[in-house]
Amino acid sequence: MWPFSRKGASGFSWSSTAEEVTEGLDGSGLTAVVTGASSGIGAETARVLALRGVRVVMAVRNLSSGATVMDSILKEIPSANVDVMELDLTSMASVRKFASEFNSLNLPLNILINNAGVMATPFLLSQDGIELQFATNHVGHFLLTYLLLDNMKNASHTSKIEGRIVNVSSEGHKFAYSEGIRFHKINDQSGYSSIGAYGQSKLANILHANELAKCFKEEKVEIIANSLHPGSIITNLLRYHSFIDAISRTLGKLVLKNVQQGAATTCYVALHPQVKGVSGRYFCDSNLAELSSKAKDMDLAKKLSDFSVDLVS
């Protein structure tokens, strides 16, 4: 058997697509926010959730690109309920504006998919003066989640339907700096490593989900929070490394997932009944997966949460 087709306990595998892992599921009556939905696995996630009847709000930096994806979804699925709203995760002001505008729609939020991200960028600062990968991949999503939490809590309480927060992380979290999170060196350009900083931001995604899961359990809130590795995928994330990007788009087609496969784990964790009640876990290939020791460190998760609150305050 081709090893990528070997199914795990969930019944799905590396090669499963987003449509396959959600086949037969009905998301009617649910509302989801998907960040970074204008391209790659974010766009495919939005399409498949819409296909399953979920009302999807595409939170995108580029409204024109988002509108193009929305139009393609509506052309394929005329009954789809899809909206596009502007969100720039490098700007806390933009995050606050998005959250305010979304909450003013009086839509109950059932699913939040923190998908958007950048990878292995040169050293750059966000609009708020925070190292770009940490700002985009973690801080923006941390603030967004915080600002939408009351909505999600109310929705789960009123509807008696479990809310789900999905943080798209990466196996790249294992390549974080040796200390995990460089709390006092976030903006240290002299010791900057594009891969180490990417790993740090992806580790933060996991720690964030784990801390949320812990808090929800303590508060007896019917919301689960999980993180995942979508797989190595042919997308535009490697645009800052042109040589590697060119290799991945040629030889990589033999061993890398396409976007249909890449969005599978996100859609599985967001919608599948097998995940009901499962919180603070990490998934890969639509199955439970193991974390690094740093990613399981709850003291580090709490420290990151406190640090993040200070950053966004």
TrEMBL record:
It holds the Pfam family adh_short. This is Short-chain dehydrogenase TIC 32, chloroplastic. It comes from Ensete ventricosum.
